[in-house]
Design a protein that fits this description.
The complex is a heterodimer of chains A (201) and B (712). With 201 residues, chain A is α+β, with helices and mostly antiparallel strands. Helices cover 30% and strands 17% of the residues of chain A. Chain A contains six helices and nine strands; from the N terminus they run H-E-E-E-H-H-E-H-E-H-E-E-E-H-E.
Chain lengths: 201, 712
């Protein structure tokens, strides 16, 4: 009898293990991944259970990224929210030889120059995680709640341009999503169209 | 000519101003212009003057350097549309940009909509009736654009036109043709088209019952953002007077608008502006278009084979299935049966029944695969043998067949239909023989078959059935040929005592298959599992024996009843024991192992990514214990001394993806390589920017060494 129960359980598990979607879907569990950061340390999404996590797709040579780092906008967000216990993961999916690709050793200098303060800078040169999340642009922003559910995917703000002057009048959608998520409220604008350069897979 | 010239105000440009570009063959400046590094922009008025109360059309001409592009109003996955901000005298009104039909620009997994070469963006400026004839007006525009090749640069320019106000504006003949061409590139309005759009959870179908003038449609460019998965393939079909385009919804789709708006583009580059009511249907109302198998992991597009080629491969694959060790015994039995029914029309009838059995089973398999695929199951070829209860069932079945061949029991004529492959069955026996042959053949992914199946499963249901039909036809072909030409049958040996010998010999071959299945079952469930299976087979064997005793000539009525009852009980108990035993063995599927002096690591997408990031060469072996081709390749080719030494010398990391039990991640990874079954061998060189290489399904040392030479 015990065996029958065990078998039924195994069979049930096999059947229940549904397929994962190719892209991250808001309202569903964020796809699990493990990536190595610029210091050689490995990070898994599961290890951040219990915390809010931000994924920021990055390519420092892209004019849209320059807009948000040149103005200090991105750094401000990173400091404000990591200060509130949010884990901020900057991900670089530029393939070797493509624009924005960084070797682990080059990252510290780039971050230092810009006074950037992500929790970790993750290297995804073969684009596995970028494609897993369907990251299209730099920047492309994702917010994951403490239960591991994706609660925001899209643009950094609602003024698609490379012009730093536009930041002042823009509504920052990531900050809005994080503020609501941190307050335990549902995110009112949970998706938006990301804008930026294409990710250089 | 000179008197037509408007006064031009030199362009003020963000970057270094460059000399203005004139239209081809004309050195005269076309209008105020500016440029960034890769794009030249020029404002071109259609007339050399403006008239009060009339409309002036102004073109923004964008000339892109080779391979650079700018964007459409909906840029797609990335990019920004070009913007024009007018500063006009009082009373002037500027209309929106009239966007020409865009191109689809795909770079890797990112798809954008835009223009390369040269694009003319037209805007209409309304001149107020109060404009004073004889005065001059200045029309200034700030232009912002994003230019991208693979990388992107923002560009901007501040341009201004100064034109005289006259009673009747004079067209500028130099640009008449260019404007005519620009207008021809605008999407046409479609007041006579009748259509609607229906949204499922994953896809939207845009269909028109009448679409006069459309011709061959290529694809749909949505004007609305966040609605469409731009990179996914679209399915455009023409039906009678109408047309239909099916496209996938975005992964994080926006709320559905009430109307769907966009441009339908034809194969010859014409476009039609459409706006139709959009209705939300059931989740499965629209099936998303099938993706073509993506062969290159790094955009190295090799595409799949074309349909005729795939059908040819499938046919040859089917033929070769006959040679597979797991099919050969069953088919030999069929040859025996042909001999028995030889001559007259009997053989042909049996041949056709056999063919029908093969085909029906292939169709059933195709149907089941399609149904499961539709249900989102992550499965692939050979999946039947990933289920331990199924393996146990198959082992019991083969044991019964073997015992039957060895003469332990005989099937009564009445049972022959049900008795499956028993050689003495009637037409039904031939039919079931075909079905059984197929059942046992499926796990052997023969050469050619992987590619054909990968093609089939990624295609529409109709293509899928066509490929499976070709497979079945190939498998049944030799038998159908034999049975159709009695002359060929004459070459077959005459019936005689040798047949009994051969039959019994085949019984042992079938027992060999049972041994293979028991080993497989053991790999899946461990040594306790295989002991239970052997116990179960013992009971099944006893059941067969009891049945044989009970039905033997001379057995009395009572002993016959007792024998039959015990046979049923024993068989039931055996099957129950065999099929309820399975539990996952701890070490199956981990993949980590040492074999033939090679150190294997367990495959995972993360581990592969990690190694690739570190610039390490990697060899991935997608395998399964039930795949005989895999076993042979691993033992003969991969473990050969020169290959092993070379792999070690080059520092190639060996990853083994073990598909013995069902594993969704492996199934997905196989699909990414355009395959549905094992074996699949993938070699990654040190240079991460170069595409990976797929090795053939049948390996030898020379092939591997050559691949290593060329890829690392």
């Amino acid at each position: 009898m015990k065996r029958i129960v065990l078998f039924a359980t195994v069979a049930g598990l096999l059947l229940a293990a549904g397929p994962a979607r190719a892209a991250a879907v808001v309202g569903q569990p964020a796809p699990e991944f493990t990536l190595t950061d610029s210091n050689g340390k490995s990070h898994s999404l599961t290890s951040f259970k219990g915390k809010h996590v931000v994924l920021e797709w990055n390519n420092f040579d892209c004019p849209f990224v320059v807009k948000h780092y040149g103005s200090g906008n991105m750094q401000k967000l990173q400091k404000a929210y990591t200060g509130k216990g949010v884990v901020w993961l900057t991900v670089n999916s530029s393939a070797a030889g493509k624009q924005g690709h960084l070797q682990a050793a080059e990252v510290a200098a780039k971050l230092g120059e810009r006074k950037a303060a992500p929790s970790a800078y993750l290297l995804d040169a073969d684009g596995t995680v970028g494609k897993l999340y369907g990251a299209k642009t730099t920047p492309h922003m994702f917010v994951i709640d403490p239960q591991g559910k994706l609660v925001y995917a899209g643009a950094i703000d609602d003024k698609p341009s490379t012009d730093q002057a536009d930041i002042a009048g823009a509504r920052n959608l990531v900050a809005a999503a994080l503020d609501e998520a941190l307050a335990g409220k549902p995110v009112s604008v949970a998706t938006s169209t990301p804008y930026g350069c294409s990710v250089k897979y | 000519m000179k008197r037509f010239l408007p006064t031009l105000i030199a362009a003020l440009v963000c970057a270094a101003p460059a000399p203005a570009q004139g239209p081809s063959g004309d050195s005269r400046p076309a209008g105020p212009s500016g440029r960034s590094k890769n794009v030249a922009v020029t404002l071109v008025p259609e007339t050399t003057s403006v008239a009060a109360g009339q409309v002036l059309t102004v073109a923004l001409k964008l000339e892109m350097a080779p391979e650079w592009h700018t964007y459409w109003i909906n840029p797609g996955d990335s990019g920004l549309p070009t913007r024009i901000q007018w500063t006009l005298p009082a009373g002037f009104e500027a209309g929106p940009i009239q966007w020409p039909v865009p191109e689809r620009i795909a770079v890797g997994p990112i798809t954008s909509y835009g223009y390369d070469g040269e694009a003319w963006l037209l805007s209409e400026l309304k001149v107020p009736a109060a404009a004073v004839v004889g005065s001059r007006v200045q029309l200034a525009a700030r232009i912002d654009w994003l230019e991208c090749k693979e990388l992107c640069l923002p560009g901007k320019a501040q341009l201004a036109l100064e034109l005289p106000v006259v009673a009747q504006a004079t067209p500028d003949p130099t640009h008449a043709e260019a404007f005519a061409q620009a207008r021809a590139r605008l999407p046409l309005p479609t007041p006579l088209w009748k259509g609607e759009a229906l949204a499922g959870a994953k896809a939207i179908a845009l269909s028109f019952s009448e679409a006069p003038g459309a011709g061959a449609v290529e694809q749909f460019f949505p004007l609305q953002l966040e609605l469409v998965d731009y990179a996914a393939p679209q399915e455009a079909t023409t039906a009678g007077a109408g047309l239909r385009v099916v496209f996938s919804r975005a992964a994080n789709p926006a709320a559905l608008p009430a109307t769907l708006e966009g441009v339908v583009r034809t194969a010859d580059g014409r476009g039609f502006l459409v706006s139709v009511p959009l209705r939300e249907g059931a989740a499965d109302a629209v099936a998303p278009p099938k993706a073509r198998p993506e062969a290159g992991g790094h955009g190295g597009a090799a595409g799949g084979p074309s349909l005729p080629v795939a059908l040819g491969f499938a046919f040859v694959g089917g033929l070769l299935l006959n040679l597979m060790p797991c099919v050969l015994p069953v088919l030999s039995l069929k040859v025996l049966s042909f001999v028995r029914h030889g001559g007259e029309g009997g053989a042909l009838r049996h041949g056709l029944a056999f063919t029908a059995g093969v085909l029906v089973f292939f169709w059933a398999l195709a149907g089941a695969l399609l149904a499961l695929r539709a249900g989102g199951e992550q499965i692939g070829w050979g999946f039947q043998l990933q289920s331990p209860p199924f393996v146990a069932f198959l082992a019991s079945l083969f044991l019964l067949l073997a015992l039957n061949l060895l003469g332990v029991f005989e099937m009564g004529e009445s049972l022959s239909g049900v008795g499956g492959a028993a050689p003495r069955g009637g037409l039904a026996g031939s039919f079931w023989g075909g079905a059984l042959a197929t059942l046992t053949a499926t796990p052997c992914t023969a050469p050619f078959m992987g590619s054909a199946l990968g093609f089939a499963l990624a295609q529409s249901a109709a293509v899928n059935f066509a490929v499976f039909t070709a497979l079945g036809a190939g498998m049944a072909a030799p038998y159908l040929t034999l049975s159709a030409s009695p002359r060929l049958l004459k070459w077959m040996p005459k019936p005689g005592r040798w047949m009994e010998t051969f039959k019994q010999l085949m019984g042992f071959v079938l027992l060999g298959t049972v041994v293979f299945l028991a080993w497989l079952f053991g790999r899946q469930t461990g040594v306790d599992g295989v002991a239970a299976l052997l116990g179960a087979l013992l009971l099944v064997g006893m059941a067969a024996w009891a049945y044989g005793r009970g039905t033997a000539p001379g057995a009395g009525g009572r002993s016959r009843l007792v024998a039959l009852a015990s046979a049923v009980l024993l068989l039931g108990a055996g099957l129950a024991l065999g099929m309820t035993q399975p539990q996952r063995a701890a070490d199956v599927g981990s993949g980590a192992a040492t074999s033939g002096g090679l150190q294997w690591e367990a495959w995972s997408p993360e581990r592969l990514a990690e190694l690739r990031a570190a610039g390490r060469p990697v060899f991935v072996d997608f395998t399964a214990d039930w795949c005989l081709t895999c076993q042979v390749n691993e033992r003969v080719a991969l473990a050969s001394p020169e290959v092993a030494a070379r792999l070690q010398a080059e520092g190639v990391t060996l990853l083994k993806a073990d598909w013995t039990l069902r594993d969704e991640r492996i199934t997905r990874a196989l699909a990414e390589y355009g395959r549905q079954g094992v074996p699949v061998y993938v070699l990654y060189g040190r240079d991460a920017s170069r595409p990976h290489r797929l090795l053939p399904e049948i390996l030898d040392a020379a092939t591997i060494l050559k691949a290593l030479d060329e890829t690392l």
